[in-house]
Amino acid sequence: MSTPRRILVLGATGYVGGRLAPRLIAAGNDVRCLVRDAGKLRGLAWARSAELVEGDLDDPDGLASAFAGVDVVYHLVHSMGAGADFAARDRRIAHTVARVAAAAGVRRIIYLGGLSGHGDGPRSSEHLRSRAEVAEVLMTGPVPVTELRAAVIIGSGSASFEMLRHLVEVLPVMVTPRWVRSRVQPIAIRDVLRYLTGVLDVDDTDDHVFDIAGPDVLTYQDMMRIYAQVQRLPRRIIINVPLLTPWLSSHWVALVTPVPSVIARPLVEGLVSDAVVGNGEDISPWVPGPCVPYRHALELALRRIRDHDVETSWREADLAGDGVAEPYPADPEWSGGTLYKDVRTATSTGTADELFRVVCGIGGDRGWPSHGWAWRLRGVLDRVVGGIGLRRGRRDPDTLRVGDALDFWRVVELTPPDGDRPGRLRLVAEMRLPGKAWLEFRVAPRGGGSELRQRALYVPKGLSGRLYWWAMAPFHRMIFPTMAATLARRADRPATSSGAPTTPHAAPDAAVGAADPAPPPVRRAE
Fold first, then answer.
1. Residues paired with 74 in a beta bridge
2. What is the CA radius of gyration of the chain?
3. Quick one: which H or E segment has residue 153?
4. 98 to 106, 108, 205, 273, 292: CA distances (angstroms)
5. What whole-number distance in Å separates Cα of residue 520 and Cα of residue 36?
6. Could you tell me the domains of the chain?
7. How far is CA 265 from each of CA 38, 87, 126, 268, rounded to the nearest angstrom?
8. Chain segment 286-338, per-residue pLDDT in tens
9. Among 14, 40, 359, 504, whose Cα sits 20 to 30 Å from the Cα of 312?
10. Per-residue pLDDT tens for 417-464?
């Protein structure tokens, strides 16, 4: 990049945007991120070097200040899994971006679209057609647009990679539909980022459409077999049948992998037709250099997973609609109607810091601290009704940050204890429920140890919501007291022979909570 620019990133909390923003900052650019909730970026080191502006592209009034003084806008917002009206929403947002960017004097919009969906007619998926429509809407405005079209992105934490990984690792024999024979040209996430940053030098008055892809043209069947080779798994037996539709395939993927059907379906539908470079411009004169081969991209992604160094993940996608943004029913200020509560307390001889580390280690591969079978059963029931279940896990086994997925919960508040100030971990449920649910852990110093206050809160929706709470009440009485007591016990200091506690230590399976650095300044779009 030749000259630092002022850049606005739309979608900085997403899989690609969360990796792009820090690279733009490292290159010396002045980066601004427009987000609905700046708390999702709190705790990330790079966010302290960015300007965070809270605003909503669904509510365009007042967005002018977010675009003011910006040279380049990265449009990385897609409504994958956002309901039946996702295409209309994406078109509406594209019109907003084009209009506000033009009024602010933005010099270029860079948009990441899909490789197929252009010229494929009815064979292309609805999601890929929607991405093509977004590009067309952006290009109707006066601001020049650079579109990059990618197919399957291979990288640690990408939904496409996770779907592939779990299908191959779980199933030694696969009965697959015909779409596994479609041709695909996958690309490594590092090459996507290289192209996204490299096209900053495309600075003229023309629109540009670049197809970006790796060097290998493969079928999805080839991709699965190569993955098995890289992981040294026994050869996978793949049987093609014509009966599995993309809709049925997406539900099968949701049962076998952590990827829920709302995300699996657009991924599967995007593979029905070939996804290889076609009519786009050649990007090599603008951003020269070879791309990572598919096999090496797999090795890089798997290494990141083994090292617990997954920078961003599909798990961070908001699958709960606007539920996370709804007011938290704090007591006694809550006035939103009926509120059911289950409150438990437990004490520990460990410090508040030690107890908070234990609390932050729940979920994922470690499981839940009491009646694991009941949590697993609840996850299975959630997946049966189309929810995400427990297989989503967590981004990292040892750290949490606001916005992280935690099985079928999401972290909405994370404040470690500091002196006499209590620590708090607050989760919002993203399972299928007839209402809204939160789970909160408050850790405070008490004497020479600490106290845990655990609260499960539920706001029912209609009669079904009330019936659900009372049906689950026996399980809550069984699970929640034991969970609070077990967490407190895991943080206890071991006693010496004289009964006095020894040097404080964390429980062997305790996780270290993410540090809470000074939050970056946040302003509202005006």
1. 9, 110
2. 24
3. strand 153-154
4. 10, 10, 15, 30, 33
5. 15
6. 6-307 (3.40.50.720), 332-516 (3.30.530.20)
7. 29, 15, 10, 5
8. 899 999 999 999 999 999 888 777 787 766 665 544 333 345 565 544 445 57
9. 359
10. 988 889 999 998 888 888 889 999 999 999 889 999 999 999 888 778
